[in-house]
Amino acid sequence: MSLLTVNHLSIDFTTRDGTVSAVSDVSFTVDKGETLGIVGESGSGKSVSCYSLLGLIPMPPGHIKNGTAIFDGIDLLQANEKTMRQIRGKRISMIFQDPMTSLNPYMRVGQQIIEPLLQHSNMSKTAAKEKAIALLEEVGISDAANRFQQYPHEFSGGMRQRVVIAMALITEPELLIADEPTTALDVTIQAQILELIHELQQRRNIAVIFISHDLDVIKRMADRTIVMEKGHIVEQGNTQAIFDAPTQAYTQKLIASIPNSAKPEAYRFTGDQDSHFLTLNNISIAYGNKKNLFKAVDNVSLTVKQGEILGLVGESGCGKTSLSHSIVRLVDIQQGEICLQQDALEKLSIAELKGKALKATRKDIQMIFQDPYASLNPRMTVFNTLAEPLRLHGLASNAEDIKNKVLTLMQDVGLEARWANKYPHEFSGGQRQRIAIARALAVEPKLIIADEPVSALDVTIQAQILSLLLKLCQERQLTMIFISHDLAVVRYIADRTAVMNQGKIVEINDTESLYQNPSDPYTKSLLAARV
Amino acid sequence: MLRFFVGRLLQSIPVIFIVITATFFLVRAAPGGPFDAEKTLSPEVIERLNERYNLDAPMYEQYFDYLGHLAQGDFGPSFRYTNRTVTEMIYAGLPITFELAIYAIMIALVIGIFAGMLAAIKPNSAQDYIPMSLAMTGICMPSFLLGPLLVLVFGIWLQWLPVSGWGYSPGDKILPAITLGSTYAAYIARLTRGGMLEILSQDYIRTAKAKGLPMATIIIRHALRGGLSPVVAFLGPAIAGLLAGSFVVETIFQIPGLGRFYVQAAFNRDYTMILGTTILLSCLIVLLNMLSDLLAVWLNPRLALSNEKN
Amino acid sequence: MIDSLKEYQNLNFEQGRSLWQDAWYRLNKNKLAMLGLYVIIFFVVVSILTPWLAPYGYETQNLALGASAPSAQHWLGTDIHGRDLMTRLMYGGRISLMVGFAATAVSLVIGILWGTIAGYIGGLTDTIMMRIVDILYALPFMIFIILLMVVFGRSLLLLFLAIGLIEWLTMARIVRTQVLTLRKQEFVSAAVVTGLSHWQIIRRHIIPNVLGPVIVYITLTIPSVMLLEAFLSFLGLGIQPPQSSWGVLISGGVETMEEYPWLLVFPGLALSLTLFALNFLGDGLRDALDPRATRD
Q1: Quick check: pTM over 0.80?
Q2: A14 touching C (Cβ < 8 Å)
Q3: B29:C151 CB<8 A
Q4: Which residues on chain C are in Cβ contact (under 8 Å) with A380?
Q5: I need a surface site. Which of A5, A127, A384, C190 has the fewest CB within 10 A?
Q6: With contacts defined as CB-CB under 8 Å, which chain A residues touch C296?
């Protein structure tokens, strides 16, 4: 007898452009004490189907067209509000993706944790508080009695997620739905939280539905796995079996997209090992005033060879973005020297450039940004976005030439030329990132700084963009600094890798050597945290 | 938090000082002396008057003199009503204006928040459209139009309520309070609706629902505090607007409050009276603005933090 | 790969739909907002053409007639001096609308400049500039305007200058917040990296993206300015005879409302209708231009 049986679930959403089917004909079961993983890319309907179980999708625009979800004899989709309230938070709890927004900022953490307990039992406030403090300690929050009185903004991201977990478990539910619970967290924190969820589940024998876009996380957490695509279940079964021998084409494609190999031989760096194309000498970058100085980058030196891809890895706040921004002069350095080799003799000191010289150098160094939704001006067509740098640097002689160059660029990055007059919001995330890449290439730069260019993208799109970048770098003999928090991605694309922590580069080596034999303890901990 | 409170308090001191100084010199800079309008006065009389009101002294001396008196709560004599001091008139008028403003703000808050909540709980339904249409009417029906219309309908045609006065006959406070409060009720309704809808779409409301809390608890415990923060932020400007609105309402209903005195003083070019009331009302508004800021911070602890960082 | 120009000249380009077109499309579906737009256009056109359209002269009196109820000769009746109310409403509307538009324009220019500079430069400049706005915000401007009108006499120019000088504060705040957010957007960083000058960035990347909220604010400022003018005129501290505005007419109508209610009702209606129209249009524009609506 399964704890939860979902049959033929179909959900529609009414949008401006008509009715969209978000979930269609989804059936699955969850047994007591097991972990069911649901994996899929954005828009696969994985979250919507689980939210509907607790009546958490807004209706309208949502609409449950069909299906049943039987939990202990009760159909969750048909039950009235009163019945549902006795199940929500008591027998089925949820953990949400973003711990920054899922706690009420106006309320003390403790009050929020004991709220489900007070709602669902006759327990006194004192007893609830005692239980909450014990649970907070169990989820790894030290000094719980004091932290009980604090507001969410006084907690770090990882700590907040621990609070959310404690809040979900305090009523000892039978089923826990975890929606991307570690997506917003750093790798090392992610490993801790996953471990915590796993431990608690074992100890309490709860059933867990674990939703994630991250196949590695699902592989590690789930007993059984469901693969979803565009509202449909593509494949389901034993996790090991699915990952070892996927039967469906989509699952195969998904698994093949996970970057888990070394850089392809054909794309590896073959240039001059002694090249000093870009040299960073003792760079320091600090923010804030004298009283409250924060050193984002602390005395960093680095050499980039002409034609190589250098990976720069680190967790949030490690200084990798500040460092990359200093090379394109988006932030100023307080100390040190950044030199770009022009030819055999001449070197440019980037930090000292001004006016025309700076503008000329900007042509040589371009940047690709993280968020393809924010990195394109929403009011400019693709054509204008790509034509702007061409006109600015006088790279085209006339209107025809500009048109020719823009359309060629579009084709080079895999966009159809006939889309030139469309606006960014009419494209998907992956297509937008292609536009951003084309914009960076428009001025024919020598060096490209790519700041987390694939971390906002789905895994299959990510694989496409990565191979596009590899191909373009080789064809155009580009040098690239590739910044990422994702070790697997960097391993796949970078010739050499530098690891940053707290403003310093702790280790730099050939990518494969670094992965096989890390020497620095921080690098080791990063690699160990991989799931 | 305390640092923010003290800082905010200290900040309003220069503002009040600027108000006093600017008002004083503006009034003194008026083209022509205060007695120019009376063409019948002989030069000797004017001289005597100038002497009496210390208008012969150099400007800076007059200014410091005035500041000195102000510090003692003395606004000086009235230019127009020679037997009364400005302080006396303020004493007579201020409590009435205050009472009116308090009634009006109560009406505005109670009706506004209630209507806004109704609308926010069920957006895009009749429960939303009806109160919001009324709110729109309230905004487009300014007090100087609504007041006379209410008088015409309830005072003259139906004869249900007195058309003027304050505290002379039963019910004569009803129409002025409604007239003054209605616009603000309308604004508050719209702000409440917007604020509540914003908060109700937050992730942590979804968390609260997932806990199995009933809707009423979610709204009262989780949504109200954040949802009403736009209303709290609006209280300062609203009070400033109410005080200015009292000019019109007190004129329409012939209420002997500070607002009516001010308008009369403006017509009579009674400079000391204008000066005194402007300074008093300005300081009041600055202080009330500050209070509403403090209230907003008290309701949202994160604001103090971000303010201190700046 | 496109090798020759000929190839793409035959290309069938897909026409994109800009955010402006999107917003216009959504606005068109909002009947109340469109009605508001038509009413505003109607009032503006009538105001411009008043000297040719008005059925009577502005000062034409018919003392023998006196105050008369609406009739075939005088559609909206006449006032106590026997002047045609419709004519006076049309001329009054010219002033009311002019004050509304002109004062909003003043606030627009100052507000956009101030807000853009503060938001774009940021840092200490921003702090100082916005502190000034904060301090001015705390001042009771309504009282100051009355003071100004008393001290310097009641002139139209002073009136809309004074009103414009209050309203720019909100405009500056709105623009500054927008610019600050945009400045941190990656597409602006991309523009810097491309090598665009500050002026080019402001013109091509910042201003077009600030315009939406600004347009909404303009539609909501015009009615509040018109209200302010009417408020002052009602007290007798704004527009002075022989000039007239809707506020002045309402004020006059109140005095005789018991005997001649139409002298209050029609000017009140004209003012309220305009305010309704502008507010509906503003609300509609806000919904139509809301970026959140476009994301989904």
Answers
A1: yes
A2: no
A3: yes
A4: 204
A5: A127
A6: 15-16
Closest by CA to A311, choosing from A266, A352, A259, is A259
Range of the domain at C194: 41-288
What residues pair up with A26 in beta bridges, in sequence order?
A9
Pick from A362, A403, A420: CB nearest C194: A362
Least confident range of A202-211, A253-262, A481-490: A253-262
Looking at domain A4-256, its CATH architecture is: 3-Layer(aba) Sandwich (3.40)
May I ask the CATH architecture of the domain B88-268? Orthogonal Bundle (1.10)
Cis peptide before A173 (omega within 30 of 0): no
Residue among B120, B128, B149 nearest B223 (CA): B120
| Distance between A102 CA and the closest CA of chain B, angstroms | 4
Q: What is the ipTM of this complex?
A: 0.84
User: Which tokens hold the place of A182?
Assistant: 């570690």
Q: Which residues of A touch B208 (CB under 8 A)?
A: 104, 115
pLDDT band for position B310 (cuts 50, 70, 90): very low
Bridge partner list, A287: A294
Best probe of the C interface among B145, B184, B278, B288, by most C CBs < 10 A, is: B145
Element (H, E) at A224: strand A224-229
pLDDT computed for residue C293 by the predictor = 47
DSSP string, A349-417: EGGG--HHHHHHHHTTEEEE-S-TTTSS-TTS-HHHHHHHHHHHTT--SSHHHHHHHHHHHHHHTT--G
What does each C-alpha distance from B262 to B267, B278, C235 come to in angstroms?
A: 9, 8, 11
User: Parallel, antiparallel, or unpaired: how do β-strands A309-313 and A479-484 relate?
Assistant: parallel
The CATH number assigned to the domain holding C172 equals 1.10.3720.10
Beta carbons of B248 and C234 less than 8 Å apart: yes
- What mean pLDDT do residues B24-39 have? 65
Q: Which of B210, B213, B299 sits opposite A54 (nearest CB)?
A: B210
Q: Could you give the residue range(s) of every CATH 3.40.50.300 domain in chain A?
A: 4-256, 274-528
Is C186 close to A369, i.e. CB distance below 8 A? yes
Provide the chain A residues 372-411 that lie in CB contact (below 8 A) with chain C: 374-382, 388-389, 392-393, 400, 403-404, 407-408, 411
For C1, residues 6+ apart whose C-beta sits below 8 A from its C-beta are: A408, A411
Strand partners, A9: A26
Within-domain flag for C223: yes
The CATH code belonging to domain A274-528 is 3.40.50.300
